[in-house]
Amino acid sequence: MGISVGGACDKNDETSSNNANQPQVEQEEEYKDYDQTSLKEMMSMGKTLKCEMNLLDEETEGEYKQTMYIDGERFRVDSEITMTGEGMQDMKFHMISDGEWIYTWSTEQESGLKMNIKEMEDMGEKYKENSDLAQGGKVDLEEKFDFSCKKWKKDSSLLIPPKDVEFADFLDQIENFTNTLENMDFSNSEDMCSICDFEQSEEGRQNCLSELGC
After folding, report:
1. What is the pLDDT of residues 22-66, one digit of tens each?
2. DSSP state of 24
3. pLDDT tens by residue, 84-122
4. What is 105-166 written as a DSSP string?
5. Distance (Å, whole) CA 49 – CA 42
6. pTM confidence score
7. CB of 76 within 8 A of CB of 96?
8. Is 151 within 8 Å of 55 (Cβ atoms)?
9. 192: helix, coil or strand?
10. Which of 171, 198, 201 is nearest to 184 (CA)?
């Protein structure tokens, strides 16, 4: 009984052709743990990374989730706080940096803040004797957490601040606030109530007015 070598080759060729036409399934990259690592350290790696972190507050039983997208000096941080207490609302916050400016906002507000990184560092030095102001102007990129990261296929649209959010300059607000405090007559209730005008949201302003009895 003869074996058709030609026929066998044709069958192999057909199988190879079929395999070549099969879509290639890209293997999902696994997450790698980075223990006690800061965002600044992540940025210094020169990689495009997607990192995740979960924390549980034992007192409130609330959960804090954070997802970071890193591309060198550019990054995005999406934070979500899930509250379990009665009457408490979940919160979502976002932060984007293009390496020169940092933009922050929440999904519940139409306004946010923008901070020039170099100017904020200078402000920290200017107000270093006033710990509240110095800390208020600080975005801590060196705080360490436990992250799980994997390579990120960069989506540049995630690194662009939203156009429907109005960003106020945080440094201008700090300077206006300090000038207001310096010229304020604390015995004048109208002056005291004017502090609430620095609140970003109307809800925050009303809460401030209520607390001051305005």
Report:
1. 555 445 567 788 888 888 888 888 889 999 988 877 766 678 899
2. P
3. 766 667 788 999 999 899 999 998 778 899 999 888 777
4. EETT-SEEEEEEHHHHHHHHHHTTTSHHHHHHT---S--EEEEEEEE----GGGGS--TTSE
5. 8
6. 0.64
7. yes
8. no
9. helix
10. 198
